[in-house]
Specification:
The chain has 279 residues and is an alpha/beta fold. It is built from eleven helices and seven strands. Strands 3-2-1-4-5-7-6 form a seven-stranded mixed β-sheet, with helices on both faces. The longest helix is centred in the C-terminal third of the chain and has 16 residues. The chain is globular, with a radius of gyration of 19 Å. The two termini are 26 Å apart.
Length: 279
């Protein structure tokens, strides 16, 4: 079936794969992928590129999955809600501060919460979704002249895709999703990356982080997928630790451009690895 070119990521996300879609596509299994699983969906670049008929879409970030759900079920109301926001620093910091009052925030509708995430993502500095240890959004205002807060064609196209196909949304631990995956489903894993240095971190998108014990637990889940005959592809940073963990698998090095960094000159090409349990 023909893909809808408007079905693309509606958020900018740390580690997003839009720039690597060409390289990753060449490494996917041959033939059309009809059943797909992505336990760390993030901005959804791979999901929207493949546009499978059946997909199991998960992310531990419940705020993010709520945005997907609202786009699926309440896109009209979401667009209306987004129209109420203005690209001004005072508005930004007021909206950013909504989650400081936990009781008040919990009383907000899912639509309002989703609109908040999109608005903050479009207007914050460098589109960086980041939370502190209390789970509160803490990226500063971006001072962009004309951010595209309401990308209505994309929101409606994504909504149509999520409704026209069998898309299962969840926000649980990735291992729960992988345990339920059936044979014949292709799994793409894009976890928070192993830091390339002591100061580097890709874990600020959710509370708790993703340390090396988690990386090992994920590799054990991948071993289980292989034992069950389920094909997977995984992206991560090209550290010695990751290479050692997946030494028994097919490893391909790709070049990626780091777009999210507060220091401009540190945004440049870095090596990543793509790991597969198939040829």
């Amino acid at each position: 079936m023909r893909k809808n070119k408007l079905v693309v990521p509606f958020l900018k996300w740390v580690g997003g794969k839009r720039q690597l879609l060409g390289a990753l596509s060449e490494l996917m299994p041959e033939g059309r992928i009809k059943s797909y699983c992505e336990p760390f969906v993030g901005g959804g670049a791979m999901l929207f590129h493949i546009q499978p008929d059946v997909a199991y879409v998960n992310d531990v970030n419940s705020e993010l999955i709520n945005v997907y759900s609202v786009i699926k079920y309440n896109v009209d109301e979401l667009i209306i809600e987004l129209s109420h926001f203005e690209n001004e620093s005072e508005v930004f910091y007021e909206v950013r501060g909504w989650d400081r009052d936990k009781i008040k925030y919990s009383s907000l509708t899912d639509i309002k919460k989703a609109a908040r995430i999109i608005f903050l993502n479009k207007t914050c500095f460098n589109g960086l979704y980041r939370v502190n240890n209390a789970g509160e959004f803490n990226t500063p205002f971006g001072y962009y002249r004309n951010p595209n807060i309401i990308n209505e064609p994309v929101l409606r196209a994504v909504s149509h895709y999520l409704n026209s196909k069998e898309i299962h949304l969840s926000s649980v631990d990735y291992s729960e999703v992988l345990e339920r995956v059936g044979k014949g489903t292709f799994v793409y894993l894009d976890p928070p990356y192993d830091p390339v240095s002591d100061s580097a971190s890709f874990t600020g998108y959710s509370r708790g982080g993703f340390d090396r014990e988690e990386q090992i637990r994920l590799r054990e889940c991948c071993d289980d997928l292989s034992r069950r005959g389920i094909k997977f592809m995984l992206s991560n940073s090209a550290t010695d630790f990751i290479r050692d963990q997946y030494a028994g698998y097919n490893i391909t090095v790709v070049k990626a451009r780091r777009a999210v960094n507060s220091v401009g000159y540190k945004r440049g090409e870095v090596e990543e690895v793509v790991i597969r349990n198939y040829e």
